[in-house]
Amino acid sequence: MDDLTYTLRQLCQRNRDGGHNTQADRMRSLSLAARQLREAGFRQMKASSLKGKHVQTLLDRWQGEGLSSGTIKNRLSHLRWWAEKIGKAGILPADNTQLGVAERRYVTNISKARELGTGLEQVTDVHVRMSLQLQAAFGLRREEAIKFQPCYADRGDHIALKGSWTKGGRERTVPVTTSEQRDALHAAHRLAGTGSLIPANKTYIQQRNVYDGQCKAAGLSHMHGLRHQYAQSRYETLTGRPPPVAGGPLVTELSPTQHIEDRHARQTISRELGHERVQITAIYLGS
Fold first, then answer.
1. Domain range list for the chain
2. Dihedrals φ, ψ of 103, to 5°?
3. Are 81 and 26 in contact (CB under 8 A)?
4. Which of 107, 13, 29 is nearest to 62 (CA)?
5. DSSP string spanning 152-221?
6. 8-state DSSP, 279
7. Given this model, what pLDDT does residue 108 score?
8. Superfamily name with CATH number, domain 124-217
9. What is the pLDDT, as a whole number, of residue 107?
10. What are 172-188's pLDDT values in tens digits?
11. What pLDDT, in 10s, does the model give residues 95-126?
């Protein structure tokens, strides 16, 4: 292993920001950057050696490969993390457009919503089944639903999610507004007791593998679509009409009053899904 990859691994091990998936994605991205810098001729680097010329070399390669702006922005976010941890945050501008990276477009009017339907009956692992029900009820991500501890999360009128469960390590709350949500929480309490939805004899990774295998065997794919379904249902509850992606009026067709309702609903749903940018709701709701 070369010095750069080794020192980047040490940097990641000392700074475990975010959940397991976030950390794993960061390490993969930085390892790729180290290999590509080595291929570009930078062979004597350590993590502390990062300079603007290295960022530009990587950016030129990524743009030359025709990568999407979303992929490039994700990789740049990992480079920013690297620069911040070595005390060189100023190497990269905060605005990606200054680097010639186009703003990412989040707009889509094709619904990716999924419902569990009869496929849930084919899931034989009770913990996986419960995780899927929580995903559908609260719009949780897979990792959040697997690590879910009902004794901690259930606060009566809302659930609280620990930073160690969530993407980016951001704690958040989701309101309990329906009887279906309350029923799911009661079932989770009965199953998990004072623990989580990871069986006592398994690690998170082991249970995630069980989850993936059970979903595949039951014909359940793209379960992230449960978050889309949650977002679309919440939008209709908050505004009284379906979102554009589900056949509702386009944003350009809304009255001034409806524009205010739309903006409020998107801000609310963005918080509940754990997204920092309201623009991302366009993926779930359309525009």
1. 3-99, 124-217
2. -60, 140
3. yes
4. 29
5. HHB-SSEEEE-TTTSGGG--EEEE--SHHHHHHHHHHHHHHTTS-SS-TT--HHHHHHHHHHHHHHTT--
6. G
7. 63
8. Intergrase catalytic core (1.10.443.10)
9. 58
10. 999 999 999 999 999 99
11. 887 888 866 655 567 788 888 888 899 999 99
Structural element, H or E, at residue 32: helix 20-39
Q: Which long-range contacts (CB under 8 A, 24 or more apart) does 70-77 make?
A: 70/104, 72/96, 72/101, 73/101, 73/104, 74/25, 74/29, 75/29, 75/32, 75/33, 76/101
Length of the chain: 287
Global pTM?
Answer: 0.70
Instruction: Provide the sign of the torsion angle of the four alpha carbons 150, 151, 156, 158, taken in this order.
Output: negative
Q: What angle do CA 14, 18, 23 make, to 5 degrees?
A: 65
Nearest to 76 by CA among 95, 87, 64, 66: 95
Mean pLDDT of 56-85: 90
What single DSSP character describes residue 120? G
